[in-house]
Every structure is written in C-alpha cells, then in structure tokens.
Design brief:
Length: 232
C-alpha cells in the first residue's frame, strides 16, 4: 500500500529569512494525521536566506540528519564541532541526553537549501555525538547510496535506530528498484525533480508512505534526487 503525502499539503512557515515546509507536525504546525511514520519524526524542507540561520538551540533524545542540497551550512555545537557543509555532505547528530548547536548560512549572496530529518532513537539518554561525511553525488546516479544505517554499512553514517537511509539520483527514464524485507515499511521523499514510483507520479517535496509491499520501482521523469527510509 502506498499513501501519497503531496508537497502542497505540507505545513509551511514563512519566517522571512526562512521558508520551511513540514512533512510532519513541527513547531506551530500540528496535524494529528501527520505526526511521523514509524521512527521517522521530522522531514523539514528548509530554504535559508544568505547570511541568516538558526541561533544556538538545544535538542535531546533524537537522531538528527542534515542533508544539504544547495549552498553552504555552517555548523557549531556544544561538543566543539565546527564545520561548513555543502552538497554531498551529510551530518548526523545524536542529541542523546542533551546537545546545543547552531546552523548558519555563511554565504553573503547565495541561499541555502537543506533537508533536516529527525529519527527517534532506539534508546533515550545516549551520549551526545556528531558525525559527518561527504558522499560523492556521482556515486548515487542511477543506484542507491547508503547514507545512514545502524551499523555504518558501506561507509554510511551510523544512527542509533533500525532505520536505513538511502539516496539516489535519476535522469529521465533512468530506473532503479528497491527490495523491502517482509514486515518492513518505507518512506520515499522527493528532494528535487520528478519521478515515478511504480505508477505514481511524484514532484519535488512529495512523500510516500509504503507498507505491505516487497518491491519498489522508481523511474526518473526528469533529473531527480530521492531519499528512501527503510523502517521497522
């Protein structure tokens, strides 16, 4: 069974310097029908104006993945980590028993586009942690690239949950398949472009909840980038 979450039905907030779209309930946006899916709790599609960003703020008991699509993201946290991420760079922050961080667009003239993803951890009170890695975008052209897994498989980031996040880029008419184990669920998110999931045409920002299916077929309708969460 596939359930479409259309991009234009997501929550939206206009903060001036930040345009953000919420796939699931977040902040002032509350929708009891969209509180998350399995252990996936947040997918925020954020566009941050040049020279703007999120000041220092706290998190706890959450696995937070930041996937940069365009521009630069300057990150600093209470663990002493400081870095600038660009397209191809992905970070994982284990908030655990408590962490603070800031996120800023250091460019004076170029906007920042990112996806911020929250996944519920398998346990609370974990030691806070941070990990980042560059994933060659060319390596996910027409094939799945492991981004985050519970065991760090294939050079992926390690997250504290039974969730596997993969990314793929597709050109028009390019096709990939994904096999789901029996009893597993999936969430597919279109980061950009247009694609078809089996017979379902998808646009940028669309999401699809998948349950009780064993195989998925994705076809590019135009240049596209997609994330697939393999979930409990």
């Amino acid at each position: 069974m596939k359930t479409l979450r259309p991009a234009d039905q997501r929550g939206h907030a206009d903060h001036g310097w930040l345009q953000t779209w919420h796939t699931f309930s977040f902040g002032q946006y509350r929708d009891p029908a969209h509180m998350g899916f399995s252990d996936l709790r947040v997918i925020n599609d954020d566009r941050v104006a040049a020279g703007q960003g999120f000041g220092t703020h706290p998190h706890r008991d959450m696995e937070i993945i930041t996937y940069v699509l365009d521009g630069a993201l300057e990150h600093r946290d209470s663990l002493g980590t400081g870095s600038v991420l660009r397209y191809g760079d992905v970070q994982r922050m284990t908030a655990g028993r408590g962490i603070t961080h800031s996120e800023f667009n250091p460019s004076p003239d170029h906007p920042l586009h990112l996806l911020q993803i929250w996944i519920l951890p398998a346990a609370v009170g974990l030691d806070p942690g941070y990990e980042e890695r560059h994933f060659d975008p060319a390596a996910r052209q027409g094939r799945w690239q492991a981004i985050a897994t519970p065991d760090g498989a294939d050079g992926s980031l390690r997250i504290h949950q039974d969730t596997r996040l993969h990314a793929v880029r597709l050109a028009a008419d390019e096709q990939v398949t994904y096999d789901l184990a029996k009893g597993r669920r999936a969430w597919l998110q279109v980061a950009r472009g247009r694609a078809r999931l089996d017979q379902l045409d998808l646009e940028a920002g669309d999401g699809v909840a998948v349950a009780d299916e064993l195989g998925l077929t994705l076809t590019g309708l135009a240049d596209a980038e997609l994330l697939l969460f393999d979930l409990r």
